[in-house]
Amino acid sequence: MIEDLIQALATCHREGGQLMAADWAGAVRDEADAYAVQDGVAQALGWPLDRWKSGGAGPQGPFSHSPVNPAAGGALLGVEAEVALRVDAQGRPEAMCIAVELVASRWQEGLAAPALLRMADFQSNAGLLLGAWQPYRPLDWAALEWRLALAGQDEVVRRGGHSLTDPAAVLPAWLTHATRHGRPHAAGTVVTTGAWGGLHPVSGVAHGRLGFAGLGEFSF
Predict the structure, then answer these.
(1) For residue 189, what is the domain's CATH number?
(2) 80-106 burial string, b = 16+ CB within 10 Å, else e?
(3) Residue 17 falls within a domain, yes or no?
(4) Which InterPro entries does its entry note (predicted)?
(5) Does residue 11 lie within any of the structural domains?
(6) Distance in angstroms (rounded) separating the CA atoms of residues 91 and 191
(7) How far apart are CA 96 and CA 76, in angstroms?
(8) What is the Cα Rg of the chain in Å?
(9) Residue range(s) defining the domain that contains residue 215
């Protein structure tokens, strides 16, 4: 049934459309199955696996990971304000930028679909928009001010709000996951590191501006 789900999700990515979660009840029994579906769909679509999303509930985890669609698209459910890191061959951060993760679902139930099915569907990822790269350096992440302005919504202005405080703290767990089958990752791989302030809902298309103190801003 995992192979059937891989083919069904790959078709959704190629042609659009969505699946009903009830039709796939029991297809994904645990996180290992969910990651197997991710791997299979990414392979079927020919993704280069040079972009990833990773996050953790706290410094000790649990952590979750997913390849990222190299081409943004889909009717959006929301966006997330993030900091993306570009890593070297040892998985260490060498550059950073502000990023907007696009959130969409191949499930008709959207974010109400069962958690394991959402994980199998690349954790509801629909692409990643990146600001200008700059050399990586530690910042006072807990006090870092950031602003998100979405068309038709009040501007969000906050300080901190990342579950790990330091976005780079997810990299060891990501590296273990990305290389678990013995496939080395390439230097220059991009890892976006988890949402600041959670999901910011939008409907269909998102227009806005994201800025982080010390990292600049960009419009999307």
Answers:
(1) 3.90.850.10
(2) bbbbbbbbeeebebebbbbbbbbbbbb
(3) no
(4) Fumarylacetoacetase_C_sf
(5) no
(6) 10
(7) 25
(8) 17
(9) 49-219
